[in-house]
């Protein structure tokens, strides 16, 4: 079993908390060494998954929570967004989860499923589990950046 850090957040299933998760994503991905563009892709993909969860998973009056889990591995970031508030047993979820198939009827997952196409385009791997609630597991691999921090970079203070 490879070692990793796991960070879990629970936020109310309300659109105004998407920004909190975006900021956390940005901080985590930045610390791991992802590029600016990769971080932007991660933020968009996670926003889509969160929006999907907050829009479709709960009735307005119902409230509810969205759970976001970040698995930080040496070579990748795995992000889970689940629209039922429970905690993750990461290994159990990963054992049960399968790849998102383009031929699946999007309506089976959630109406307004355009976000899933966007998520799939931005991430390296997307897996979905929807027995009770929807869990989206997104993976972004950490590529060795061609330019080291100390190499010749264009200065930002021109």
UniProtKB/TrEMBL annotation:
Gene: rsbW
Xref: InterPro entries: Anti-sigma-factor_SerPK, HATPase_C_sf, HATPase_dom, RsbW
EC supergroup of this enzyme: transferase
Residue ranges occupied by any Histidine kinase/HSP90-like ATPase domain in the UniProt entry: 11-140
GO molecular function, one term: ATP binding
Pfam family, one: HATPase_c_2
Coiled-coil regions listed: none
Upper classification of the organism: Bacteria, Bacillati, Bacillota, Bacilli, Bacillales
Claim: Hydrolase is one of the keywords in the record: no
Annotated keywords: ATP-binding, Kinase, Nucleotide-binding, Serine/threonine-protein kinase, Transferase
Name the record gives this protein: Serine-protein kinase RsbW
Membership in a protein family: Belongs to the anti-sigma-factor family.
Listed EC numbers: 2.7.11.1
Function, in words: Negative regulator of sigma-B activity. Phosphorylates and inactivates its specific antagonist protein, RsbV. Upon phosphorylation of RsbV, RsbW is released and binds to sigma-B, thereby blocking its ability to form an RNA polymerase holoenzyme (E-sigma-B).
Reaction(s) the record says it catalyses: L-seryl-[protein] + ATP = O-phospho-L-seryl-[protein] + ADP + H(+); L-threonyl-[protein] + ATP = O-phospho-L-threonyl-[protein] + ADP + H(+)
